[in-house]
TrEMBL record:
Heme b binds at residue 189. This is Peroxidase. It comes from Saponaria officinalis (Common soapwort). Ca(2+) 2 binds at residues 190, 241, 244, 249. InterPro entries: Haem_peroxidase, Haem_peroxidase_sf, Peroxidase_pln, Peroxidases_AS, Peroxidases_heam-ligand_BS, Secretory_peroxidase. It is found in: Secreted. It catalyses: 2 a phenolic donor + H2O2 = 2 a phenolic radical donor + 2 H2O. The keyword Heme applies.
Amino acid sequence: MEGYKSMNILILILFVSISNTVSIHVGYYDRKCPQAESIVRQVVERKFSKDNSIAAALLRMHFHDCFVKGCDASILIDSTTDTEAVEKDAGPNLTVREFDLIDEIKSELEAACPKKVSCADIIALATRDAVSLAGGPTYKAHTGRRDGVVSRASDVNLPGPSSTVAQAQEAFTAHGLTLKDMVALLGGHTLGVTHCGFFSDRLSNFQGTGAPDSTMDTGLGKRLRGVCGSDPGVDPTVSLDQSTPLVFDNKFYNEIKNKRGVLKIDQELALDRLSAKWVSNFAANNTVFEQGFVKAILKLGNIHILQGNRGGEIRKNCRVVNKIKN
């Protein structure tokens, strides 16, 4: 009898241990909410048909969320009068957008499957669908994340547009991402825009030299000076990919190989001895780029996730935690 009890206790311990270490996986909602992924897709398709720039916006949101405290949708939480500044209030996140799109998706999911689908998974799925609609790869996204209950602007520490490859690599490595992953993820700059303020020094007074950055194509520099102007009170935007800015493809890598990178970090990828190898590989073959990107974004989506019994919750409203945690 004692041996029987011991065996049951061992089985219970093993069950609890396994339940606490279950990884996110493809098809997590197949039973919990079978229509979850199709609902996300439908809402994203509706919005994309009116504004195809959402692919870049969602990619940025996904990256900015995962790179801080892990993929826990903490970037979606709004500040309140009794809390400190939240992640979306931090400088690098002030231009993150499409929070309303996440709200719309969440509303439809709550109507179909209340308290089943996390906001963190919504971001991952919406990003996957938007990338595909923009001409990028179609891939199966892992799901099963839970939502975080803490969001602090002070936690936001992202590699900046003027980082060197070494500095950016250090930040990516700290999250378990390789140099190849980094080059592939920065290939997401094949979509979207940036403000002139993030690269204006490259146009006329690079690092205090009084001259433009010599690593930028002179023709591009001249055109960007015309777009950006000289009024410090105006901060226009320009496409990060000067070739196909609304299509998810490998043209971005060919652009930076030809000294047509807008952000300093993008151009550095093609100049640094270590990262240049991956730039050339991705520039030469779009399929190779897509494969590298999918592998990297799935790894990104696994950073410090909350799952199973490891804390977190399924928020009813993506902007607000369900209850205060002590």
